[in-house]
Amino acid sequence: MLPDDSKPFHVVCDASDFAIGCALMQFDDEGCERVVSYQSRQMKPAERNYPVHDKELLAMRYALIKFRVYLLGEQTFAVYTDHTSLRTAMKSPHLSQRMARWLSFFAEYNFVVHYKPGKNNIIADALSRRPDYDPRTVLGRQVIDDEDEDDDHCAVCIASGINLTNVSPEMDLRDEIVAAYADDAVYAGIVAYLRTPSDETLGALSRNTRNQIDRYHLDGDLLCYNIDKFDAPRVVVPNDGNLRARIIHEFHDSPMGAHLGREKTFAAVSRDFFWPHMYKWVRKWVRTCETCQRVKPSKSSQAPLRPLPIATEAWRSVSMDFIFGLPPDAESRTGVLVFVDRFTKMVHLIPVSDTVTVAETAAHFIDCVFRHHGLPESIVSDRDPRFTSAFWSSLFQLLGTKLSMSTAAHPETDGQTERVNRVLEDVLRSYATSFASWSSFLPLAEFALNNAEHASTVLTPFFANNARHPRVPALIAVGHPTAPRGSTLGGDEDDVNDMTSAAHEDVTLNAVTRSTTKKALATPDIAASPLATWTARTLIDPGNTGVSVAANYVPKIPARPVDNAADAVDKQKENADKRGRKNMATFATGD
């Protein structure tokens, strides 16, 4: 409720072994206790060593600091705690040095301490035991039961402890998976049948399992699963919550996972692993990821799509852009130069300073694009002075490359690179442990973006370029000897060319289909609705000052159906920190 100065306030507080929490409360007109404000924080390492008495006193001090504007000068108010000794702490003749220092602070307030049993101090107790504050857990994730069909829990409500596990060479993930088969009733029977095929072991399986038994095979002691005969084998993970959580953590929370969304994380995990209800596991994991909820922006409005023509070959058309305004790293670099192939969606990232020159930009282009992929026929960019300079234009005119630049003050033209910029900023914010460390995560961020399935091509950029997926640490830990799906290892040159050509055909077909579908569904047919009401109007960003005032008013369009690509966008926090993205919705009209 909103604070009412005519009514008295009271405070509840509590401390646990790793966090403190408090709440400012008031009674409404009906006599019901209402919360005005919540506050909590994790304890510092030194504070965790305090005795219990001092931890509870720390929670009280924290509450008075946070609610100072409401409580200072207030008539006598009550502070409720579940530590009864605090009632006489201010009058004790034996004070520790810490309590003596805090005594002058408490003297500014006129309050009375009351004892409230822990079982009744529910709000403060819950705030002080937030699982994401507990250093003993990995992001406070809960083991998800396969039988649980309820996905409507919040991140805090479903959080509880998976113990922190360090993956080391001594802890072989393969051995743990093999050992866990014995505790899984379904997979133990499958393994027993595959080792000693007989009518007895086959009869012990359920009817559904018997119908799918030809999809399973043993790779040594490791159980593998094939969807069909053309599908590469996937490692079967038994019904062990910690094992499944470790695998999802590797593909989502690690720097190579980059905290990407639900669909991309599921595509990465399901590429090499299998277990029932995997999609539900990934969906809950991403939805309850505290980092994703904190750093990712809310979805913005969409305008009619006008995508650029689809590229016809890998690295024939490249888009590029700068990201500036990042904190200076150890080498005083504050920006990133981004190159994106418009066909395969592969990304190259280079840290640069804000004083980067045209010649340095050209050198980065040669080092990161030309050296690996050859010269593109066209480059899409905005009108940055580095791209409009005579040197840049003359250089690419001599090389035979066409420069396609966007309209002034219209970044949506190069929407592909702008979208990569937004995702990259979210990734760096998720992993940078300090303001100066962001550049050290760029190689891993580039790998994560190129190893994630793209919504337009339905392929990863790595596979679209090379017709094979790279190996990741999880596969090495499992020791799965089968080459990654689509691998060209051991094949001759004709096989490599055939697989690459097939991948490019898939990219073109998927890109055309997705682009046409998205444009058809996202673009309203104004001509077919001549009776659209103009009574409700919405003010939008005018952009250039030359646009007429009448163009700033458009009819409200009702909610439209979205395609499966748009539906794959993560459900993100309403009030996310946009970090300089402004609070104005910018319509994305690029590809």
UniProtKB/TrEMBL annotation:
InterPro entries on file: DNA/RNA_pol_sf, Integrase_cat-core, Integrase_H2C2, Retrovirus_Pol_polyprotein, RNaseH-like_sf, RNaseH_sf, RT_RNaseH
Source species, domain of life: Eukaryota
One MF annotation (Gene Ontology) recorded for this entry: RNA-directed DNA polymerase activity
Keywords: Endonuclease, Hydrolase, Nuclease, Nucleotidyltransferase, RNA-directed DNA polymerase, Transferase
Pfam families recorded: Integrase_H2C2, RT_RNaseH, rve
GO biological process, alphabetically ordered: DNA integration
Keyword tRNA processing: no
Region (Disordered): 564-591
Signal peptide stretch: none
Biased composition (Basic and acidic residues): 568-578
CDD domains registered for this protein in UniProt: RNase_HI_RT_Ty3
Domain Integrase catalytic stretches: 303-469
Name of protein: Integrase catalytic domain-containing protein
Lineage: Eukaryota, Sar, Stramenopiles, Oomycota, Peronosporomycetes
